[in-house]
Amino acid sequence: MLDHDSPSTLRMPHAEAHALGMRALTRLGLAEAEARTVCDHLVDNMLCGYAFAGLPRILAMADSREMQAPRTPVTVIHETPLSALIDGGNHVGYISVAKAADMAVEKARAGGFAVVGVCNSWFSGRNSYYLERVARAGLIGIHTASGSAMVVPSGATRPALGTNPIAFALPSRDDPLIFDMGTGATMWGEVLLKALLGEDFDEAVGVDAAGTPTKSARAIVDGGVLPFGGHKGYGLSLVIQSLGMLAGARRRRGEVLDFGFLFIVFSPTLLMPLDEFTTQLAELIGKIKALPRQPGVDEIRIPSERSFREREIRRHEGVLLERAVHERLLAF
């Protein structure tokens, strides 16, 4: 089995996990179509091996103050043939950012290039989920997501940046090449899940309320996450936070430190035929995978290769859900 069962986990078919998520999300007040959009994303995260980004995110949604605030329809507030700025209407980002990705694909197909931003939204999930549909449409995509204060800048004791992921996707002859990374030492969803389970990290990835480095997930909830890679991760996170302002982050609450989601999508045909590009990319990947390997290394993997492979395995083996999460979802 790909995943190891334990007394603290429950194995279920992915369709059953989807049904459980749908029941919980509709209890939270989402319309059925909205709940399906969110749940499709969450269950795919679990299939791809990101357990913390799966159904446990529903618990974070339920506890968020945004979920208690009124929601309005997702609308386009500024548009040109090559761009758009979308007001997410305080909907969770799984809904509004999905609409933005689809709009970016549509505009890039028509004009070769598109830039689309989303504001007044929150919790967008896994960037590569959106970019996979971009790349499978034969387009190249870059996606950034700024957030509210969770990450502590280098040398500070309090958070002032989001976990601020950045992702790239390129079409290939087989599965797309996707690289998706957060600029925090860990993702906030993983902090929340470990805090719920009373677990610690293997190393100090955050600080407590006093600004002291700590491994305790519960202490990090009251403090903040550190940037990955020291000053390099901090600098990249600051740039992504700035791009979030371009996507309209200040429109939500008048603060520059907030959620802002940006897509830059373009066609390879602006520079060369698509087949020529995908052939060259396949050649590059082949050269990397054929390199001599260090002792004990069975395979040189390409970014996103593991998640695509594991997705197909878990479709047959099922997904694991922590029993503590399962019980809280049932309590809805």
Write a structural description.
The protein is α+β, with helices and mostly antiparallel strands and 332 residues long. It has a domain at 1-63 and 304-332: Orthogonal Bundle (Hypothetical Oxidoreductase Yiak, Chain: A, domain 1), CATH 1.10.1530.10. Helices cover 42% and strands 17% of the residues. The chain contains twelve helices and twelve strands. The chain has helices at residues 14-27, 32-47, 56-63, 93-111, 127-136, 188-197, 217-222, 231-246, 250-253, 274-289, 305-317, 323-331; strands at residues 9-12, 75-80, 83-87, 113-119, 140-146, 166-170, 177-181, 206-207, 213-214, 224-225, 260-266, 319-322. The strands form three sheets. A seven-stranded mixed sheet has the order 2-3-4-11-5-6-7, with helices on both faces. It has a three-stranded antiparallel sheet with strand order 9-8-10. It has a two-stranded antiparallel sheet with strand order 1-12. A hairpin with a 2-residue loop joins β2 (75-80) and β3. The chain is globular. It starts with 8 loop residues before the first strand and ends with a helix. The model has no long low-confidence stretch (mean pLDDT 96).
Any descriptors?
12 helices; 332 residues; 42% helix; 3-stranded antiparallel β-sheet; Hypothetical Oxidoreductase Yiak, Chain: A, domain 1; alpha+beta; 17% strand
Tally of contiguous helical segments? 12
What is the tally of beta strands? 12
User: What is the element string, with H for helices and E for strands?
Assistant: EHHHEEHEHEEEHEEHEHHEHHEH
Gross CATH architecture of the domain at 1-63 and 304-332: Orthogonal Bundle
Global Rg: 20 Å
